[in-house]
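Complex record, two chains
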Amino acid sequence: MKTTLLKDLKALLLPIIVYCVFLAISFERFSNLNGIYTIFLQSIIPTMTAYAVAFGYMCGIFDFTIGSRIIISGLIGGIMSSWFGLPGLIIGCLVASLVLSAVTGILNWVCRIPSLILTMALTMIYEIVGKNIAGKFSFISIDYQHAVLGASPYIVYVLIFATIIFYFLFSFTKFSYHMRAVGSDEAVAKNTGIKTQFVKFMSFVIGGIFIAIAAILTISQSGSMGAQTGLGSATLIFKPLMGIMIAIVLQPLCNITFGILISQLTLNTIFIGLIAAGLPDTFQNISLGFFLLVVMIISNNVGGSKNLLTKLHAPFVTRAETAAAGSQTKGE
Amino acid sequence: MKKVLSMILALTLTVSMFAGCSSNTGTSSGASSAPGTASSGQAPKEFKIGFPWATSSTDPTFVSIVTNVKAAVESAGGELVLVESDLTADSLVNNVSDLISRGVNGIIFMPASDSMLPTVDRMCSDAGVYYSTMFRTISDSTIRDQIYSSKYFAGGCNEDDEECAYNITKTLASQGVKNLCVINIAKGDTSSDLRDSGVAKGIKETGIKLLNTTYGITVQTDMTKTIESYIAAYPEMDGILIAGTYCPAALPTIEKALSDHKLAGKIKVGRIDFDFTMGQYFADKSFNVAYGGQQQIDPLLSTVILVNSVIGTPIVKDKPFNLVTNYLELTSKSEADDFLTYFLGDTPVYTSDEIKKSLIKFYDPSISEDTFKKTVDSFTVADVAARHKDLVKK
């Protein structure tokens, strides 16, 4: 328990180090508590989206439809909220998301074509569906009184609730181990008796729960949900995907559930840090890309890095040892 | 004798035949000196105009652009050929090729960059198809010279984006803004760059402090994130200028973020390009100024310029006709409501009949550059509302 806690704290050092870097660059703008709280709140929706992406990602599916499914769920939830208030929003988002996830999962099962191609085509279809649902003005607004879940403190409660569910589903279920087996090597998993297509289908459906949560929070936070066309909805999954990649790197230190949250905290710290430092948007993209590259390069070359460090360290150690041996000889 | 007579007869017939040809040629050249003018209730020959556009978009502004282009084409009896486009340079070049193969006589489009224009010009010149541009000017002088010397470039409209951004920055300053954050379209876009330089000019003149500019926001979550980051990092921020964005529901998203932080109404918000939700926020006094209205008149007049060239009555002979349309300023709910009713409905800002009477040279040879300039100068929300009050159902 103590070791796990210590490892989690080590992982938490990543956003803290990034925060300290920006604190040094722009102390005046970055030192207020409001800034830290904003970073935390802004990390919640991408974390929910990343949880949804993680299920597919773990069993080897690259799912482009997640953004469009968030949009359709949010639009239907928004319409339902005008009739049934907050319960309508929650039920509308959940039902729409689960139906769409099941449809996507079934098509993936039946069509047997690479998920990248299937989900890209489905994204285009879902975007048109979303556009038609959004109507003439291309977006649906909700009454601010039904948008409480997007604001503090409720959004934090949703995060805690969703994190517990994800942690349980991802760490303690038979399904999660089957999912990892399918993602690792589908042929081997099939030979061991795992129903690989069913596992993939379930990964879509269970991911759909988190898509619904992300949709509820997105429409609640923005007060509206707009339709996207021309694969614009795919933009919603890129930063969560970056978060998953960093979380996988952090896996030796902490569970992926917390790894995703920590990585989103880190990415948002960079985002707000660069804005506070007054740097232009183009620089923000460069920094985020550079940060991801650094993390991935380090993680993929851990062995090499250790050897390099040892080699660099070795001459100093040898000299120190020689000096120590020399002084010992003189003493004798 | 018979031979001589027959030769004289043959010669006479031959001469009379050439004389007939000569007479016809004269008539023809006479007609080409004023091609296509309707001397006795004639109509121009049939023609097709191609328009690559985001036709799948239901955004009312995008839909209204199609409505206005269609009115301009139909004013002279033409047919509009729409093709779906994502409006990127590559996609537009493919769209132009597609439209040429479908036999259009003219193409109207919004260039995504200067660099795509020489390719389009080459394709259109080879096919003998006129083309016209809307919303954009050509910044690169080499490309501009090349395009302006093209026989098939009819011209088009653009706005003075720099002047507009300069004016709105000054208006925000006059409303008390001292620390401004800006949101703009992705860098590299001609309008984005010009608006940036207009904001810079306004800031220099008014002494406002520009805290930060964020570019290329396309989704609401990023818009919320940006506004909340501004609030967290710049507590002194008292103004937000949306110099341009393709994010859906941008204004409601910004207003919600400000409202969540109890800053709606305290931070002045301005935007370039009208938004159909702005009336509500004008009423709440949480939105303060908008510049726009060009999104309907610009494509309409650009298409009218093209149509005039296609039917053989160009507004300006032997060179393209470029027109700068004005941005309109809105600061009240009633103006915003009129904009919503008269600009974003099913009726174009000038109907086909109005265009036919006052902007098609085929029907009225006295139409000139000045006619267009006067049209632009008199174009306001109130003008459209007055002309169309019986046409549009409120």
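Note: Confidence is low (pLDDT under 50) at residues 15-36 of chain B.
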